[in-house]
Design a protein that fits this description.
Helix content is 40%, strand content 5%. It is mainly α and 159 residues long. The chain has a two-stranded parallel ribbon with strand order 1-2.
């Protein structure tokens, strides 16, 4: 039961609730930040990895490219490790995300807000996502909400 729906004769989806905010949940923020940090750092700043090579490795889920994967995993700035480089990448993308959503009108007379709650959707979304430029292999979980990513080895253990 949602307050006010009965008294105004509208259900929640028609705007009957007193508060009609809709939340758009962000998932995989750490994965996104690490992936973009890897591209920016390894491809553009260090010029250590040509973009074509990175794209081919992602398409192949890093099969035959373990050296490159380890470079991306271990020699690239990571979000959530007190590293300004990666944290600034995350902040820049978060600002774009926030500005695109927060306060926009929804269909119920309220507004959209963002939400970064950790839930289990990062597991499903990861199961349908290919390899990412941060060294994450295909089909492994994404990072939870706004948390840093903990690399999975594919054996259920964290690396």
């Amino acid at each position: 039961m949602i307050n006010d729906c009965i008294s105004c004769g509208k259900d929640y989806h028609e705007g009957g609730a007193r508060y009609n905010t809709s939340y758009i949940q962000g998932v995989g923020t750490g994965t996104m930040a690490d992936a973009l940090s890897a591209i920016k750092f390894q491809v553009y700043d260090q010029k250590a990895v040509p973009m074509g090579e990175l794209l081919a490795a992602l398409e192949a889920d890093f099969i035959g490219q373990e050296r490159l994967r380890q470079l991306l995993l271990n020699k690239t700035p990571k979000y959530g490790n007190d590293d300004d480089y990666a944290d600034q990448v995350m902040q820049a993308v978060f600002e774009v995300y926030f500005q695109a959503i927060d306060g926009r009108p929804n269909t119920r007379g309220g507004s959209y807000r963002i939400n970064l709650l950790p839930t289990t959707v990062h597991i499903y979304f990861g199961s349908v996502t290919g390899a990412t430029p941060d060294g994450r292999k295909a089909n492994l979980p994404l990072s939870e909400a706004s948390l840093p990513y903990r690399v999975q080895t594919g054996t259920g253990r964290q690396q």
